[in-house]
Design a protein that fits this description.
Helices cover 36% and strands 24% of the residues. By secondary structure, it is an alpha/beta fold. It has two domains: 1-81 and 168-178 and 199-248, P-loop containing nucleotide triphosphate hydrolases (Rossmann fold, 3-Layer(aba) Sandwich), CATH 3.40.50; 88-167, no CATH class. A hairpin with a 2-residue loop joins β4 and β5 (67-68). α3 (97-109) packs across α4, α3 (97-109) packs parallel to α5 (151-164) and α4 packs across α5.
Length: 248
């Protein structure tokens, strides 16, 4: 079997007496979508924030492409190729969708300022930014301020930014949230193709999307992984059905 792109080993995080993540171990392999599901308050977003670096783990190890990430900043993890999309957007909402992606392109190019020509006419920035927007279906919304985009469109924009950064793995926290049936269907199709570029660790409450997309699923309950397996294995796991999916 191939080496995992992302390996989480025995990760723990407590807030006082509350154990938000307890001894969590998960691997993300090339070309796969690994979904993380569980009831509200199970610790899913806390885990993603630890992986991305916005929250420091108490113990355990995060290894990405063979390198230990624990002591690296959010920005350095992103530069290493760890793309992320959160429930709470971190977009520059006063800027257009295009300008948001251009900022990502600019950071990859290693240049913070353009002294000799306006950035909006710089093809080395606009062309890859427009290409990333087209990949996520936002080409017609390029000039719309991020503040005016719908919740679902903001998720798409965050993925476009991650694409522009050349991400080698994606952490997606409820990308379907705020989308109607058609939007969810379109994004499901897009994510199915996106895994070919880089694997995805996906948090999602839309179980139809999870079962349609996931190669493997891990179930988190009270901060602990109670099962990991294929869609069929998770669907038929008695402990998972009792704790989350429900008996039918």
């Amino acid at each position: 079997m191939a080496e995992p792109v992302l390996s989480i080993r025995n990760l723990c995080k407590s807030f006082g007496a509350l154990k938000a993540t307890e001894d969590v171990s998960i691997d993300l392999y090339p070309g796969e979508i690994h979904a993380l599901i569980g009831p509200n308050g199970a610790g899913k977003s806390t885990l993603i924030h630890q992986i991305a670096g916005t929250l420091k783990a108490d113990s355990g190890e995060i290894v990405f492409l063979g390198d230990r990430l624990n002591d690296l900043s959010v920005a350095e993890r992103a530069r290493r190729g760890l793309g992320r999309s959160f429930q709470v957007s971190s977009l520059a909402t006063e800027f257009s969708a295009l300008r948001n992606v251009m900022l990502a392109v600019q950071s990859v190019q290693g240049s913070s300022f353009r002294f000799f020509r306006p950035v909006t006419s710089d093809a080395s920035l606009t062309e890859p930014a427009r290409a990333a927007l087209a990949r996520v279906g936002l080409e017609d919304r390029a000039n719309v301020p991020a503040a005016e985009l719908s919740h679902g469109e903001r998720r798409q924009l965050e993925i476009a930014i991650a694409l522009a950064l050349g991400s080698k793995a994606f952490l997606l926290d409820e990308p379907m949230a705020g989308m109607g049936p058609e939007g969810s269907k379109a994004l499901t199709g897009f994510l199915s193709e996106l895994r070919r570029q880089a694997p995805i660790l996906l948090i999602e409450h839309d179980m139809d999307a999870v079962f349609a997309l996931a190669d493997r699923i891990s179930v988190l309950v009270y901060g602990r992984v109670i099962a990991t397996g294929t869609v069929d294995e998770i669907r038929t796991n008695p402990e998972v059905r009792r704790a989350y999916l429900g008996d039918e």
